Amino acid sequence: MTKQVVIVGGGVIGLLTAFNLAADVEQVVVCDKGAVGQESSWAGGGIVSPLYPWRYSPAVTALAHWSQDFYPQLGAHLFSSTGVDPRSTPPGCTG
Ligand SMILES: Cc1cc2nc3c(=O)[nH]c(=O)nc-3n(C[C@H](O)[C@H](O)[C@H](O)COP(=O)(O)OP(=O)(O)OC[C@H]3O[C@@H](n4cnc5c(N)ncnc54)[C@H](O)[C@@H]3O)c2cc1C
Hints:
By secondary structure, the chain is α+β, with helices and mostly antiparallel strands. 41% of the residues lie in helices and 11% in strands. The protein is built from three helices and two strands. It has helices spanning 12-21, 40-43, 58-82, and strands spanning 4-8, 27-31. Strands 1-2 form a two-stranded parallel ribbon. Helix 1 links the parallel strand 1 and strand 2. It is globular and about 45 Å long. The model has no long low-confidence stretch (mean pLDDT 89). Bound molecules: flavin-adenine dinucleotide. Flavin-adenine dinucleotide binds next to helix 1 and helix 2.
C-alpha cells in the first residue's frame, strides 16, 4: 500500500482526489496556499451540463453524459460520508 500522497491544491479536484484516495493510502495530505475550496470551486455555479454541447467531440460528450448520470450518486455518497450536501447552498451564499 502506498504510504503517503501529497496533493497540491484544495479545490474540488484536489479534495475529490484526496477523498477517493483516502481508502487506499495510509495518509493523504492536501496543501493549499490559502483556505480550501475558496478559489474557482467556490465560484462554480453548479451547472453539470456542457454550455455548448454541439461544440464538443463525441468522446467529450460521452464523458459529460456519464458525469451527469453519476452526479446524483456522487452527491449522495458525499452526503452520507461527510454530512456535506454538495447540492445545498453553502453558508454565507445566497441562492
Ligand atoms: C464564476 C465561475 C462559475 C463557474 N461555474 C461552473 C459551473 O456552473 N459548472 C462547472 O462545471 N464549472 C463551473 N466553473 C468552473 C469550476 O468552478 C472549475 O472548473 C473548478 O472549480 C476547478 O476546480 P479546481 O480544483 O481545479 O480549481 P480551484 O477550485 O481553483 O482549486 C485550486 C486550488 O489550488 C490552490 N493553489 C493554486 N496554486 C497553488 C500553489 N502554488 N500552491 C498551493 N496551492 C495552490 C488554490 O488556492 C485553490 O484552492 C465556474 C468557474 C467560475 C470562476
